[in-house]
Amino acid sequence: MTDDSEAMSVDEEPTSKAKPKATKKRKAEDDDQRPAKKQKRREDTDPWKLKSPAVRRDWTQMKAPPLEMFHFARKVVDEYTYLDGKIHSMVTNITAERHWVLSGTPPIHDFGALKTISAFLNLHLGVDDDGEGQSLQVKKRKREQTAVEKFHSFREVHSLEWHAHRHELGQGFLDRFVRQNIAEIDEIPSTTEIKSVNLPAAERAIYLELEHHLRALDMTVKRGKKSESDREKRVAQALGESGTAEEALLKRCSHFDLDTSDKENAMKACEVIVEERKKQLDNCKAELLKKLGEALKMEQKIGKVEGESLFREYVRVTRNEGVGDKDATEQAQELLNEAQIPANLKGVTNKQVDGKNKGKGKDEGLSNSKKEQIWEHREQTHEIRRITKELVGRVRSLRYFTAVRDLQRQREVPPVVSCPSCGRDEVPIEEVAVLSSCGHMGCLKCVMECADKEECVYAASGACRAAARVLNVVKGDTLGVDDEARDGRGKHYGLKLEQVIHLIKKTIPKEERVLIFVQFPDLMKKVAEALSANGIEFLEIKGSASQKSKNLEKFQSDSKERALLLNVMDESASGANLTSASHAIFLSPLLAPSQEIYDACETQAVGRLRRFGQTRLVHIWRFLSTNTIDEEIYEQRTKPKRV
Ligand SMILES: [Zn+2]
Ligand SMILES: [Zn+2]
């Protein structure tokens, strides 16, 4: 092996980031191959056959020699930003005369980011400063700090001059070592088209229900860890395979398919959801009852305390004022009775006290164990409040879905709806409206009027304090209609996917090739299923690394399959050249933890086809379901940036 690039000047700029797929190009210098020095342990077995006569004669006969044995003429690291952990240290430790790192989206916004480049060049730019870097990097750095380092960074606050000097140093580094190519991508024309998908009523109903449902459970929910309480288990169930509420919502507005059912369409699925929600409501009530019992026991153990405890406040409010929803209030009060919670604890004053002392009691003179019990009691009450909030959400969900189900059966059994606002009985079906936020129904005119004021049509009567928006108003006669037309036409996958399929089959010319970007593996599965069912041949980037690259190559070399399905976050193929395609379809906006990651992934994705070698006009299609999290995320990420 000889190195013919030896003649290249070190200062020459990288010609193109379109490098061959191999992440590293290693050339061995032929004069540096001597058997390793002192050998020990596993190496004693000479796994590389260094001592065999054949290798002694000709070093290329070695079996899988470790890379560290070589000193390379040139080391090129493509997509260096993805290296991490062991691989990072392995790669940085390989010695070479010249070091190159390549990236389409190198972070250079601060000193910490520059240090990630300089690490590959064996340059030490300077010490870490805790004030610098993105939160993610800072966190990682802090994890790796020793206690002494932590203390040190605490003690040492750097001066403005120090930072100014560092800035100069960083700029010097950039000037000297970093080169950027920008021209090529701008020369390749592209158009972006946003395809707004107006979800049909039944799909919208299901989407809205999940949104309210998750909101009731607290939108910030994440999948719990090991010690899952019953409540956490229910949250996990609501999330399905998703890690967060946003993820679950993004999936729900991209395809129609419920994990809990194999029902053919949204209409039939409502039936299933009603049953499921009933069960979940029962679980929730059982848990609340149990917690109430425990809190009561604790209260009796604690005995008399001064002022109104948090638990007492909860009981009083639930009994007198309710929980903001008439049905839910009745159910909560029933549970209070069932748990036999007296209006007054014997010997405990239940008189209201002014805010200052509320729930605190006087701590002086209390033993430690008593204080602990009081603390525990408060914690129990917090949990009770959370479950009560969930109960309200579940009552509303169930009411809403029961209404949707009944409205969908309108052809068989027309539902009887009366309007609480104008008092009309038997509102004709064309004029019925239901609120997705709480499931209450009335006539469209009254429901809209109230939604304008952000309240439920039952607000005036005091039966419902749910906040309503005009977006939450679902017209009764639209439910069930869109599914009617689809009946008997086999399984459908939701309007968005159907439009994607229509785009590929009817709009995009047959000879043009398409990349379909999807973010989540389970969603990819659904998309794959929909493509197959609609007779669209496609390749997929999944499985082992070799399988992935095989499919990438196959696609790029004009495979008969004209579509390629890939995960937008998949780093393995991030540098791959896919210029044989001229269309990129984004099924949904990218859910990313930060703007930088969003931008980087977008650039990567589009960069696969909008790059040197592209001969056609590049079309970018973005599918967004209107009035869903799709639009929310897209607007947030694409709003003009501050300079
Ligand atoms: Zn009315
Ligand atoms: Zn209501």
Automatic annotation (TrEMBL):
Annotated segments matching region Disordered: 1-52, 346-374
Biased composition annotated in UniProt, kind: Acidic residues: 1-13
SUPFAM superfamilies, A to Z: P-loop containing nucleoside triphosphate hydrolases
Residues annotated as domain Helicase C-terminal: 496-613
Keywords: ATP-binding, Hydrolase, Nucleotide-binding
GO cellular component: nucleus
InterPro entries registered for this protein in UniProt: Helicase_C-like (IPR001650), P-loop_NTPase (IPR027417), SNF2/RAD54-like_C (IPR049730), SNF2_RAD54_helicase_TF (IPR050628)
Gene Ontology biological process terms, A to Z: DNA repair
Chain intervals with Basic and acidic residues compositional bias: 27-52, 353-374
GO molecular function annotations of the record: ATP binding; ATP-dependent activity, acting on DNA; hydrolase activity
UniProt-listed PANTHER family: FAMILY HELICASE, PUTATIVE (AFU_ORTHOLOGUE AFUA_2G09120)-RELATED (PTHR45626:SF26), TRANSCRIPTION TERMINATION FACTOR 2-RELATED (PTHR45626)
UniProt-recorded name of the protein: Helicase C-terminal domain-containing protein
Source organism (scientific name): Rhodofomes roseus
Lineage: Eukaryota, Fungi, Dikarya, Basidiomycota, Agaricomycotina
